[in-house]
Amino acid sequence: MTVPAVVYLPWQWKFFLPAIIVGIFAILTSFIVKDTPKDAGLGDFDPQDATSGDTEKITLAYVAKKVFTNPIAITIAAAEFCTGLVRKGFEEWFPRYMQEAQHLGLDSPIFQRNAFAIVLAGIAGAFIAGFMSDKVFGSRRPPVAFIGYIIQIIALAVVSLAPSLNAVIIAFILNSMAISMVHSMLSGTASMDFGGQRAAATAAGMFDGMQYVGGSVMGVGAGWLIDTYGWGAWGPSMIGFSVIGAILMLKLWNARPKKHAAH
After folding, report:
1. Which of 94, 96, 146, 173 lies at a 20 to 30 A Cα distance from 196?
2. By CB neighbour count within 10 A (0-12 exposed, 13-18 middle, 19+ buried), where does 75 fall?
3. Taking every pair of C-alpha atoms in the chain, what is the biggest distance, in angstroms?
4. Range of the domain at 71
5. Do 177 and 121 share a structural domain?
6. CB proximity list for 36: less than 8 A, separation 6 or greater
7. pTM for the complete prediction?
8. How far apart are alpha carbons 223 and 193 in whole angstroms?
9. How far does CA 12 lie from the centroid of its chain?
10. Do residues 146 and 217 both lie within one domain?
């Protein structure tokens, strides 16, 4: 949605438009979204997560123990750091790549269709990941994230070789889908699994926060890399982090939240 704003309006609208949309949803959330199923008029149920059966008082020490000292949570946070590098390295820089390496203007119909397809692919990736996790992998998240990282590696390899504009566009679309597959599984779903109902928000903050730490590194690093070595270094610079993410997901392949007996 911000592409037309960048093309036809002052550049500041790239920031104004998302802020307006977020503001609208903040208002809607405050009136519609509830804290618990019971608050929404539904029955309570056991989510079978990492804090199921745990009756210990929630304190800072409790949350820290559940999240910051949990090897699984730390591994997921490290993977999300890698996701952030790839996500921001791709999303923030592919418009300039298309301009400078493929010689397409932001007002080009080809570029605009590609940008829209990238967004749609990201949405589709989240739905695909959810279906695969629940129906294929028995509600395990790491296997789906692993597949997402592998697709990223393949897509970024195609971008690095750049055999044709059409191949690059297809690779961009697949990469967007794959990034969303990983992000939806780790920052979203895994935070609820391994943080549990009582520490999910902290886990989500840790996982998502590490993604933006990675993104900030790439924001500075990609600019220097492209200025120094050209666009040929852009794709390969992200592949290594997708590889690291895939390896970390292999370590967690069969990881499931451990429930606690009520006491």
Report:
1. 146
2. middle
3. 65
4. 59-251
5. yes
6. 44
7. 0.84
8. 36
9. 25
10. yes
214 within 8 A of 81, measured Cβ to Cβ: yes
Q: For residue range 80-118, what is the model confidence (pLDDT) as tens digits?
A: 999 999 999 999 999 999 999 999 988 899 998 999 999
Print the SS3 string covering 159-224.
HHHCCCHHHHHHHHHHHHHHHHHHHHHHHHHHHHHHHCCCCHHHHHHHHHHHHHHHHHHHHHHHHH
Residue 60 to residue 68: CA distance in whole angstroms: 11
Same-domain check for residues 99 and 194: yes
Q: Per residue in 217-250, pLDDT tens?
A: 988 899 999 999 999 999 999 999 999 999 999 9
CB 173, CB 45: distance < 8 Å = no
Residue 13 is encoded by which pair of tokens?
Answer: 């609208």
Q: Are residues 221 and 154 in the same domain?
A: yes
